[in-house]
Specification:
The chain is α/β, with parallel strands linked by helices and 128 residues long. It is built from 3 helices and 8 strands; from the N terminus they run βαβββαβαβββ.
Length: 128
């Protein structure tokens, strides 16, 4: 199963630049209305302007801009060096929510809010 995780953002170019710097990845697709970063063979992180999803789905969709800054989900990424990813996020405009700490479920994880208010987590599984 392939997974596309799509974040609705206020400024596609700014958000794409943020994720490019933080993930150290070039977008696989970057066209008006969508930027995509391939995270692995089966997972893509998409950046879509809120206006684009409103045009696509119309009035039946609650306005995503009304929830701006109110976290409704998180992007939880397992990486080999979560502290360096977390630090890049902070240096590029994310707000730290929690530093890198050992968590009850066996991961070391650091939490932040990206510039659009999405919860962003970088984690590494630790052997106990």
């Amino acid at each position: 199963m392939k997974a596309n995780i799509i974040l609705y953002v206020s400024d596609q170019k700014a958000s794409a630049g943020f994720y490019e710097k933080v993930l150290s990845l070039k977008p696989e697709l970057d066209v008006p209305g969508m930027t995509e970063f391939r995270l692995n063979k089966e997972t893509v992180l998409g950046i879509m302007p809120s206006a684009g999803i409103k045009r696509l789905l119309g009035e039946k969709l609650p306005d995503p801009d009304k929830a701006r800054g109110i976290p409704r989900a998180e992007v939880y990424l397992h990486v080999t060096d979560p502290l360096s990813y977390h630090n890049r996020a902070i240096l590029n405009g994310a707000k730290e929510l929690s530093p890198l700490l050992m968590r009850d479920w066996g991961d070391e994880a650091a939490y932040s809010l990206d510039p659009d208010g999405h919860v962003l987590v970088f984690a590494m599984k630790c052997v106990r």
